[in-house]
Amino acid sequence: MDIRQLQFLLAIVDQGTLGRAARHLGVTQSALSQSLARLEKYLQVALFERTSRGMVLTPYGSALVTRARTIANEAQFALEDIDGLRGLGRGHLVVGAGPALACTFVSWAITRLLLSRPRLTVSIKEGSMSSLGPAIEKGEVHLAVLSRDKSSQERQLVTEDILSESVNVVARKNHPLHKKGSLRLEDCLNYTWVLPPRPDTLRLFIDSAFTKIGLPEPRVIVESASAMTIKSFLVRGDSLGFMSHRLISLERDAGLLEPLFVEGAVWERDVQVVYSQRRSLSRTAERLIVELRQLAKQEP
After folding, report:
1. Which of 170, 190, 200, 231 could bond 196 through an S-S bridge, CB–CB 3.0 to 4.6 Å?
2. 162 neighbors 281 (Cβ within 8 angstroms)
């Protein structure tokens, strides 16, 4: 059993059929079938069931795949570490992040990392702990930057608090509510909202802020998981949003959006770096964490 056989195995699992896996790997389907047959002969078990829907893992195959991902990742990390010592700086890093963090804090840290590793490539996957946690466990995402989530303990993930950020009600620069003094949630009832869909934590927070003081939930006219989409609606009308200060920093500088300090609708949330407890980090991933820490110290 060698690493190449395990890489072929993982490709079949990820692509679903021998044909798609062969095209993904750039090999012939015959070569892929022969590799799988040798691996099954070596292990003396069937790893897949061939069905009309594609290749389905047997219990033996499922047991092997969990270990195979770890082995393949560790082998890749070893190659990247050697390249780093040779001054080549090659490799590929997969970073997860919440939407508000991906386009600000995380992208800034990655930009700094790329200055010392210009041949590195990076993929950013946006999501929450519910979507990124399983990917971190499987080794599909090397590390993530997310707001604190209790489920990280259940998933046996390593977490490190790195900064806090303030989330407020947001409106366009000349919104009528900016002319008022102190604001309460009652003042926001006459305006529509543009918010992410449930179960996004921002949406759940602002919904509960209204209901726990006996008010109806905000009247949402547009739901979107895209921060850019939400901001475009806020800039062009009187709708309200709920976003972090970091996420609207460019719009604040341009005089387009401003936070509204509404009593009962301010959330100070902790941001964490999250990675697997069972898998080692590559030198590149460790370096990104250093960049994240340094950047967090420089932020007000």
Report:
1. 200
2. no
Distances (CA, A) of 91 to 77, 137, 275: 8, 20, 18
Residue 269 · residue 78 · CB < 8 Å: no
Q: What is the pLDDT of residues 124-166, one digit of tens each?
A: 999 888 889 888 988 889 999 998 877 666 677 999 999 988 9
DSSP assignments along 28-95, one per residue: -HHHHHHHHHHHHHHHTS--EEEETTEEEE-HHHHHHHHHHHHHHHHHHHHHHHHHHHTT---EEEEE
Asked whether 152 and 272 are in contact (CB, 8 A), the reply is: yes
Task: Give me the number of domains the chain comprises.
Answer: 3
Spatial distance between the Cα atoms of 224 and 248, rounded to a whole number of angstroms: 16
Looking at residue 114, which CATH number applies to its domain?
3.40.190.10
196-206: pLDDT as tens digits = 998 788 899 99
Domain membership of residue 13 as a residue range: 3-81
More confident residue, 74 or 189: 189
For residues 161 and 145, the answer to whether their CB atoms sit within 8 Å is no
Looking at the fold, whether 72 and 194 belong to one and the same domain comes out as no
In which residue are the tokens 């259940």 written? 154
Q: What is the Cα–Cα distance from 272 to 269, expressed in whole angstroms?
A: 10
Q: Are residues 185 and 249 part of one domain? A: yes
For the cut 80, the answer to whether the pLDDT of residue 77 exceeds it is: no
Pair 136, 208 in one domain: no
Strands (DSSP E) contained in the chain are 48-51, 54-57, 91-97, 120-126, 143-147, 157-172, 183-184, 193-195, 220-223, 241-244, 257-260, 262-263, 267-276
Is the same domain home to 96 and 140? yes
Mean pLDDT within 101-111:
91
Query: Cα dist. 269→100, 148, 167, 243, 264 in Å?
Result: 12, 7, 8, 12, 14
